[in-house]
Amino acid sequence: MSEAHSIVVLAGDGIGPEIVGATRQVLNRIGSFDYKEHLIGGISIDENGTALTEGVIDDCRTSDAVLLGAVGGPKWDEVVARDPQAPRPEQGLLGIRKALGLYANLRPVKPSAALIGSSPLKEDRIRGTDLLVVRELTGGIYFGESGRDGDTAHDDCAYSVVEIERIARTAFEAARQRAVGRQAGPRVTSVDKANVMETSRLWRETVKAVAVDYADVELDHMLVDNTAMQLVSRPTDFDVIVTENLFGDILSDEAAMLTGSLGMLPSASIGGEGEPGLFEPVHGSAPDIAGQGVANPLATMLSAAMMLRYGLDLPAEADRIESAVDAVLDSGLRTPDLFTGSEGETEAGTSEVTSAVLAELA
Ligand code: IPM
Ligand code: MG
């Protein structure tokens, strides 16, 4: 590598600092990076009175990539319960996604062979699962007008054609890329609630119109409730799933269980050409286990691999991290979220798992 890539590190709350710290050790083994650490979420509220400051946004904008841990915790939830106007940690995450224009969230779901037994779902159902959730990330109900009027509350959901078009293109392009060198052709399943919602009807129309440019990609449309069911009954039939912000949030947590643990799922949030991406595990801040040294750092390490591949154009380095993680899982080492007590498994903490990944990279 010629010059050091600049990475803004937003460790956040709960287990965030532990898993991000572990991941930085792995990144340092792979190359030399120029890190800038900043606060986000609850810890930023404590320090600055807001979950995200302009200074942090500016530094993120001029970086090559952003690596994020997790935000939130009961401490701040309690404040909000007393005072609904109080800042919430999640505003930091939503704010940085919006500020950086990160409209596409990619959440790959591919159970590692070694973890097939850790999933609560039947092995024969999930074996062979290899899907990608493409979640729209800067629109819909998450960013609509919301408020209260007496004993009524509302959250508006809006989508424009432009917002739907660009995420549809991301999904079709991703499907094409995934199919390279594969026997099965590319497939996209667009998920909506077109039997009820107007935004979903616009979604479906627009995805169909974009599909004209991708005649090689097989497209089908599925209602979100049906998708929730199909995901657990026949997950291997999916290739790329593209859906709106809220549905993607829900379906990606469900899909995570196909991999054995929410602690395994990485994600990449991508914006416009040349803009920095943001890379974070799908799981949350897990305040119940924070500080105990038992958090699973693998989803963050795999998110760092996505950062190397999609954000910094270092695919070989990304492969190395992914192979190292696979090797550690093959060796039987398991953080408690993955530990089932089966033969060949050893229960281990964050630092032990991290050392094992580092040893694989040596
Ligand atoms: C996620 C999380 C966030 C979301 C929360 C923490 C705001 O659940 O990244 O999936 O809903 O997008
Ligand atoms: Mg979520």
CATH topology of the largest domain: Isopropylmalate Dehydrogenase
**Mean pLDDT, rounded to whole units?**
96
CATH class of the largest domain: Alpha Beta
Low-confidence stretches: none
What is the helix fraction of residues, given as a range? Answer: 40-55%
**How does the major sheet shape up?**
10 strands, mixed
Oligomeric form of this entry? single chain
How does the SSE layout of this entry go?
Layout: E1 5-12, H1 16-30, E2 33-38, H2 42-48, H3 54-61, E3 65-70, H4 74-82, H5 90-99, E4 104-109, H6 123-126, E5 131-136, E6 146-149, E7 152-155, H7 161-179, E8 187-192, H8 198-211, E9 218-223, H9 224-233, E10 240-243, H10 245-256, E11 266-270, E12 277-281, H11 298-311, H12 315-330, E13 333-334, E14 346-347, H13 350-361
Parallel strand pairs: 1-2, 1-3, 3-12, 5-10, 8-9, 8-10, 13-14
Antiparallel strand pairs: 4-5, 4-11, 6-7, 11-12
The structure holds 3-isopropylmalic acid (IPM) and magnesium ion.
The site of magnesium ion has 2 residues, from helix 10.
Brief synopsis:
With 362 residues, this protein is of the alpha/beta class. The chain has helices at 16-30, 42-48, 54-61, 74-82, 90-99, 123-126, 161-179, 198-211, 224-233, 245-256, 298-311, 315-330, 350-361, and strands at residues 5-12, 33-38, 65-70, 104-109, 131-136, 146-149, 152-155, 187-192, 218-223, 240-243, 266-270, 277-281, 333-334, 346-347.
